[in-house]
Amino acid sequence: MSKIVVGNLKMSLTKHQVEDYVSIINKEKFENVDLILCPSFIHILMFNSKNYSVGAQNVFYEQLGPYTGEISAMQLKEIGVNYVIIGHSERRTIFNETNSIINKKINACLDNNIKVILCIGENKEQKDSNETSNVLKKQIEEALYGIKSSNLQNIIIAYEPVYSIGTGNALTKDEIKSNILYIKSIINNNFNSDCKVIYGGSVNKENANDIIDVCDGIMVGKMSNDAKEFIKLLSIVNM
Length: 239
Hints:
eight-stranded parallel barrel; 8 strands; TIM Barrel; alpha/beta
């Protein structure tokens, strides 16, 4: 069964760097990987290959209107975007996005036939206070409030413990497995359905094999910005 790999390129590459990146990545084929690349808005149209899907890193929840600086799901759909990352910890902490706002964004994407990558995860303080289960449950239930079970097939949940992102220290295989199973149990209990759950947080070539063994895929940040190194990681998943 194919594994999902999301490359979150964040706000990291210039136009010339993206040109080089695309020239490298477009030559590759990944038979056992469902690759989703999420560049900055201004670079989306530079990514065009049948070997991967294109995602956006954010979206606004209204279709049209006086919302300076925002981009709607309808506009993203028009330029070929297949997925949108919603609820990333950086959006939650830096831009104060609430579960209610995240819920509106999810509905906007689903209404425009765009699939969702919903990010959830606890911070260090919550983990140390043994609040992980409560935090994940609350984030899932509030973000997916009112969502029909039939739409779970259009949603990927990305579990990203905030304290692991960018540190080089991923959770252990057992920790990831336990939390992934818990997330899947919440989905099953609330929707009588299933959905794909992937892990993100300091994924690299050394730990990717262990991680994908206990979940549906991985979300990669920093390493995905180096096309050659990212391909090496993808080749591990592709085995």
